[in-house]
Amino acid sequence: MRLSIPILFLTLVVNSIAANAAPTIHHEPRPIEISPKDKSEPLYSSDPKERYWSFRLGFLGGTLSEAQPTDPLFFYGLGYKFLNGSLSTWQMEVSGAKDNFLHLVVGKKFYFSFQDTLPYYKFSAGDLIDSGGGLGSILNLKKIQAIAAIGLDDVLKWNQYLQAEIGVSYALIGTQLEISLGFGF
């Protein structure tokens, strides 16, 4: 007796029209909020990017000349902020005073993000120029300064109009102290 086992093959034929009829579902993940915040409450009350110009009045004391001791100077100046980051900005200042004094400063301000005011610290490089001395006084290496300062850009919470700053600088001729008040516009 012979045993016969039929082998059965199943073939599935799919028509191309039926294969394209299947719905396409796109699954896009939604972002997850880690800490929901109220969007109406700002990080700080004034944005450092709002005011670009500032007019300053101040006092500069210390060693300002190589040859003779000088009296403290009361100066006036104009500052401009540019290349703003989120909480930092580059700043350039030009100040003048009596006796042909000119002070050029370029530095970077770093703001703290407090709720009510805008305190900052600043690192700068400056040049003390005696404009009566000709071109030789512009790049006098003994008068190039390294400056560190702290300040407040919104002293009375008036949207950054009133500014106050105190700084210490060092040049090869000696140290200087600078105190100033400014008005941003």
Structural features, described:
The protein is an all-beta fold and 185 residues long. Helices cover 3% and strands 45% of the residues. The chain has one helix and eight strands. Strands 1-2-3-4-5-6-7-8 form an eight-stranded antiparallel barrel. A hairpin with a 2-residue loop joins strand 7 and strand 8 (174-184). It is elongated. The N and C termini lie far apart (110 Å). Mean pLDDT is 77; it is low at 38-46.
How many strands appear in the DSSP assignment? 8
Strand portion, in percent?
Answer: 35-45%
Largest sheet: 8 strands, antiparallel, barrel
Low-confidence segments: 38-46
Helix and strand element order:
HEEEEEEEE
Q: Helicity level, as a percent range?
A: under 10%
Work out the helix count: 1
Structural class: mainly beta
Shape: elongated
Give the radius of gyration. Answer: 33 Å
Strand order of the largest sheet: 1-2-3-4-5-6-7-8
